């Protein structure tokens, strides 16, 4: 059952649906999906093409690719991007352009030559850039880039021009000259940090802009007036005088103001541009991009994790942007423009700014999204962010637990048309996101609940019961044929985690020991000095430490990892987290394991030398691992012999109640259950999803 579409656009939003001329092309509206990486790339090209096509279906006027490596002398293995190394790569790109064109959107391609960002682990070519410098990777690769000579520069210009011709053959309307995010040769030539040249390509602003200007001219020539040629540039590196900064970049833009067909503005590096909601508000780029439009007669696009439609309108009205650039808002809701157009603002699935999407690219795995579990599953599992298959039966489903998993399952089953009963022990919907969104910096996470709560109010076939902590007897007494258990998980109190996989004996000495659940329940440590032992390594340890520091505790954060919250490298938050903790006065001790605790002190042991030290700790907060709330599932399992007599056929346990993981795992698990209910039973001997197999040479 798919919601009927009504067209009732609020006239205040008409301005967002005005066409904008982009060189020789015209976009039908101002909704612009800027390039974004996704971990699909050359390994999963059809999945990537279908994902982009669905964005076009959702109403984006422009839909762009991710980085497309255009020459084998610069590639960023192990990261998985698209490639346009030779003519044989054209069909992959063409498939993407076709999917985008099928819904009347313009297709954009971001040509990238990473230069000194790519160690060339696959091609084993020698990286090159403006200067002799170590390659700039996340992993400090022991590889240097060599300084390009004038012949290298001529070659690179030729390769870029060839790539523009190939991209045009593939059917793209917009072909980027990419000079942003510290990610490519053009950015490196612009920035004094990377460019120490004394020839005509170094030194003065005019000289540093020279190569960018030449590449734009080459691209315009190769495009032959058939494709728009924008420039993507970083307005600031947020390094003060040491890096590119707004004044300097404004002067650079002034040099070539009307040469490209339009401008796409970002901050640099990518972590500054795509900050999480914990570290930046919606539109945090605005002070940096304001005023750029005055320097050029050409349209300007910029990003800011915009999900507020009123904010988008004001950006256009104030003359800051012509096009609203979105990456994450388009991932969380590929149908955002269509919903604005149809007057369905309340149906927008707002991005929560968690950067789980980024973690796909940074772990070389297909993109996933906390809010939109269909992301990257459009082709391989046939899921659609808005359309669902009608119910195949009217057999009711009882869902126990209204956290992200239970809510997603109830919403999708409800939309499919199943009779659903959702039972929740507490008095509100949302489970862990309600509790976690009250922690410092995580307020936007409540949107996981809010979107689904809003959808459920429109589904009369979903009944919700609060204050209903169900037992196995309750469940058996109700007589539902199918039960879904999504009862969540509880933080462990025994210290078991990544480092200690058996119970921590030192804890037997007792003391004031708390878990994140205690803190979220409002129970605070008794003494003044607190050790937060983080063996979880995602956000929770740092957030708890931050909360306690704000409450006035003397906080000592201890982890066996080499840095605070180390997994948040995958969400590009690690440096922001460690900085905030240090600024809050939190003492950070790394590479130590917790050897003993009691009598108001902890013994820490160096993980390398085994040397021990003691530290004061009136209280200890264990942020380690969680255990499934499996009581109900276990009870039901033991009474399996009487299920049929009670009318019960099937019990499934999902998400945190099965194996605790991220909120994105929970919404995905809820979606999967709802998508697969009553689907034909497939063989478990083959993968239940489509994939592309490398063609043998
Ligand atoms: P997940 O992330 O897997 O969705 P959460 O912990 O966020 O899990 O949510 C689980 C929800 O289940 C919580 O709101 C909790 O109150 C509820 N719950 C737990 N046990 C029961 C039960 N026996 N009956 C009804 N609701 C329950
Ligand atoms: Fe937004 Fe998080 Fe989804 Fe990324 S994963 S689009 S940040 S909700």
Short description:
The chain is of the alpha/beta class and 697 residues long. 28% of the residues lie in helices and 18% in strands.
Structure write-up:
The chain is of the alpha/beta class and 697 residues long. The chain folds into 3 domains: 11-362, TIM Barrel; 397-488 and 632-676, NAD(P)-binding Rossmann-like Domain (Rossmann fold, 3-Layer(aba) Sandwich), CATH 3.40.50.720; 492-627, FAD/NAD(P)-binding domain (3-Layer(bba) Sandwich), CATH 3.50.50. The chain has 21 helices and 29 strands. An 8-stranded parallel β-barrel has the order 3-4-6-10-11-12-13-14, surrounded by 6 helices. The protein has a 5-stranded parallel sheet with strand order 17-16-15-18-29, with helices on both faces. Helix 9 (309-317) links the parallel strand 13 and strand 14. Helix 1 (45-57) packs parallel to helix 2, helix 3 (150-169) packs parallel to helix 5 and helix 16 packs across helix 20 (631-638). The chain is globular, with a radius of gyration of 27 Å. The structure holds adenosine-5'-diphosphate (ADP) and iron/sulfur cluster. Iron/sulfur cluster (SF4) is lined by residues 328, 331-332, 351-357, 369-371.
């Amino acid at each position: 059952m798919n919601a009927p579409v009504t067209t009732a656009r609020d006239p205040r939003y008409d301005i967002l649906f005005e066409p904008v001329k982009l060189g020789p092309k015209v976009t039908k509206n101002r909704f612009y999906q800027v390039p974004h990486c996704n971990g699909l790339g050359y390994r999963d090209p059809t999945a990537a093409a279908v994902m982009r096509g669905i964005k076009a279906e959702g109403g984006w006027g422009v839909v762009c690719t991710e980085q497309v490596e255009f020459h084998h002398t610069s590639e960023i293995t192990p990261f998985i991007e698209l490639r346009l190394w030779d003519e044989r790569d054209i069909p992959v790109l063409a498939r993407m352009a076709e999917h985008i064109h099928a819904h009347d959107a313009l297709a954009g391609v971001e040509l990238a030559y990473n230069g000194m960002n790519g160690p060339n682990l696959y091609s084993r070519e020698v990286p090159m850039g403006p200067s002799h410098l170590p390659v700039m990777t996340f992993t400090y690769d022991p590889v240097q880039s060599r300084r390009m000579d004038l012949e290298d520069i001529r070659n690179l210009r030729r390769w870029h021009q060839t790539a523009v011709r190939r991209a045009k053959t593939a059917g793209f309307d917009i072909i980027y000259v990419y000079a942003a995010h510290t990610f490519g040769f053009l950015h490196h030539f612009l920035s004094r940090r990377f460019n120490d040249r004394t020839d005509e390509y170094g030194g003065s602003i005019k000289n540093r802009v020279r190569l960018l200007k030449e590449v734009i001219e080459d691209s315009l020539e190769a495009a032959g007036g058939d494709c728009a040629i924008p420039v993507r540039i970083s307005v600031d590196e947020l390094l003060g005088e040491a890096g590119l900064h707004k004044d300097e970049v404004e002067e650079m833009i002034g040099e070539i103001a009307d040469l490209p067909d339009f401008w796409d503005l970002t901050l640099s590096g990518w972590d500054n541009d795509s900050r999480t909601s914990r570290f930046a508000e919606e539109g945090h780029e605005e002070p940096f991009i304001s005023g750029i439009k005055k320097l050029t007669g050409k349209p300007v696009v910029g990003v800011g994790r915009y999900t507020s439609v009123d904010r988008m309108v004001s950006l256009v009205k104030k003359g800051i942007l012509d096009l609203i650039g979105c990456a994450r808002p388009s991932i969380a809701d590929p149908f955002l423009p269509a919903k604005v157009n149809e007057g369905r603002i309340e149906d927008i699935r707002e991005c929560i700014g968690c950067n789980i999407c980024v973690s796909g690219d940074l772990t070389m795995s297909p993109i996933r999204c906390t809010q939109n579990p269909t992301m990257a599953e459009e082709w391989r599992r046939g899921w659609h962010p808005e359309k669902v298959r009608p119910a195949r039966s009217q057999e009711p489903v009882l869902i126990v637990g209204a956290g992200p998993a239970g809510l997603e399952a109830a919403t999708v089953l409800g939309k499919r048309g199943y009779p659903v009963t959702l039972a929740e022990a507490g008095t509100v919907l949302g489970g862990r996101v309600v509790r976690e969104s009250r922690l410092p910096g995580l307020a936007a996470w409540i949107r996981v609940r809010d979107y689904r709560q809003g959808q459920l109010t429109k589904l009369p076939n979903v009944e919700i019961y609060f204050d209903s902590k169900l037992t196995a007897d309750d469940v058996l007494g109700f007589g539902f044929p199918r039960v879904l258990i999504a009862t969540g998980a509880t933080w462990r109190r025994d210290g078991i985690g990544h480092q200690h996989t058996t119970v921590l004996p030192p804890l037997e000495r007792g003391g004031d020991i708390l878990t994140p659940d205690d803190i979220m329940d409002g129970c605070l440590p008794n003494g003044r000095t607190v050790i937060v032992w983080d063996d979880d390594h995602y956000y929770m340890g740092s957030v708890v430490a931050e909360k306690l520091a704000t409450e006035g505790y003397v906080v000592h954060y201890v982890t066996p990892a080499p840095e605070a919250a180390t997994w948040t490298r995958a969400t590009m938050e690690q440096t922001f987290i460690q900085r905030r903790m240090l600024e809050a006065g939190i003492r950070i001790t790394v590479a130590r394991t917790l050897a003993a605790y009691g009598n108001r002190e902890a013994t820490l042991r160096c993980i390398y030398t085994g040397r021990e030290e003691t530290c004061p700790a009136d209280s200890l907060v264990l942020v380690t691992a969680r255990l499934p709330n499996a009581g109900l599932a276990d009870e039901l399992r033991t009474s399996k012999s009487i299920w049929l007599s009670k009318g019960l056929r099937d019990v499934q346990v999902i998400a945190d109640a099965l194996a605790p993981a991220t909120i994105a795992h929970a919404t995905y698990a809820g979606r999967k259950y709802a998508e697969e209910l009553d689907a034909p039973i497939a063989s478990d001997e083959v993968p239940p999803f489509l994939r592309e197999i490398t063609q043998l040479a």
